[in-house]
């Protein structure tokens, strides 16, 4: 049983977290480059929020939005 958990440890620590170790070492020389994954996620989330808000405005302008509390069966 111990070998199973050591195998999981090897998989995550030595293989899957290897790119994150690279970013950790890169942070000492260039903070902006080390946080490229974070900036990528921020950009993706920002674009998704802008798209979502535009769609909400579009549905509200077309009076397609049903704000009645009985619009969903679980509100009854």
Describe this structure in words.
The protein is an all-alpha fold. It is built from four helices and no strands.
Number of helices: 4
Strand content range: under 5%
Biggest sheet layout: none
How many strand units? 0
Task: Report mean pLDDT, rounded to a whole number.
Answer: 89
Q: Could you give the order of the helices and strands?
A: HHHH
Give the CA-based shape.
elongated
| Main structural class | mainly alpha
Helix fraction by DSSP (H/I, runs of at least 4): over 70%
Question: Roughly how many Å is the radius of gyration?
Answer: 23 Å
Number of structural domains: 1
Low-pLDDT runs of 5+ residues are: none
How far apart, in Å, are the first and last alpha carbons? Answer: 51 Å
Transmembrane segments: 31-53
GO molecular function, one term: glycosyltransferase activity
Keywords: Glycosyltransferase, Membrane, Transferase, Transmembrane, Transmembrane helix
Protein name: Uracil phosphoribosyltransferase
Brief description of this entry?
GO terms for molecular function: glycosyltransferase activity. The protein is mainly α and 76 residues long. The protein contains four helices and no strands.
Keywords:
76 residues; mainly alpha; 4 helices; 71% helix; elongated; DUF6341; transmembrane; glycosyltransferase activity; transferase; glycosyltransferase
SSE inventory with pairings:
Elements: H1 2-16, H2 18-26, H3 31-34, H4 36-61
């Amino acid at each position: 049983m111990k070998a199973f958990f050591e195998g999981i440890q090897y998989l995550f620590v030595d293989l899957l977290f290897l790119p994150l170790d690279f970013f950790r070492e890169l942070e000492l020389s260039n903070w902006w480059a080390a946080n490229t994954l974070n900036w990528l996620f921020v950009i993706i989330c920002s674009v998704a929020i802008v798209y979502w808000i535009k769609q909400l405005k579009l549905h509200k302008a077309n009076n397609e939005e049903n704000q009645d509390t009985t619009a969903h069966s679980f509100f009854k």
